Target: EamA-like transporter family protein
Amino acid sequence: MTFDMPFLILSVLCSVLVSVLLKLAQRRGLAMPAILFWNYVIAVLLCAWWLDPPLQRLHEAGTPWPALLLLAVLLPTIFLAMAASVKAAGIVRTDVAQRLSLVVSLLAAFAWFGESADAMKLFGLGLGVLAIPAIVSRSRGESAGEQRRAWGLPLAVLFGYAGVDILLKHIAAAGTPFAASLFVAFSGALVIMLGVLIVTRVRGTLRLDRGALLFGLLVGASNFANILFYIKAHRALPDNPAVVFATMNLGVVVLGTLVGVVAFREKLARINIVGLVLAIVAVATIAASLG
Model:
């Protein structure tokens, strides 16, 4: 089997880079609303340039506008949750929670999209369900508020990304091209973040600086590159989607863990390590069932 491995490697690197940039931005005290605003500015521009979205298709009957608008609201909301999770729970737990969202989205696929449930998929889902509480578990030495944030925010990331995946499946099932739906979602998210910026600026609680601009552009470019390279990997491997799926998800889990532990000195309890192993086995099992 031959395939263009660089696409997958770049997609994994860009995915983890987003979490790293959010962590570094928070250490510098940069305003997250401003970062997310510039993130969507560059995402909209890159989407229009690279993907050339067929916007005329949006005028067709049956375009799922409620799902598109909900996606536009969910994207910045989950990005804010992800940034807060990186700060409170760390890169490791956040990235693993993001990838475990496939457990929820696969359950939704069984319920709403006619996905077949075989023994291997169910086994992988079972392991994924067991991995979730183990991953978000934190030390008993922390305060009640710290513990709530440390497990609540990764769960918000998990269910948020699952919601994004479910909405994208629904939009695709309606026949809306992916590039067009992505452009609408990014544009809607940009408008929402502009509104947030205006409100916070009027209240005097927002400080705009070049650091937020720089990090916002970097986050937006990395986030879009992650999507672009993932699409290219699927196109390079049209007959092997399981390879792309497994490499992407396992790559992010492993690299995110290495970066979090080695570069940012994040500590993992034994229960977290058990959850990490369960998550890796769960993703590998689900990927094998897709093959």
The chain has one domain: 5-290. The chain has a mean pLDDT of 89.
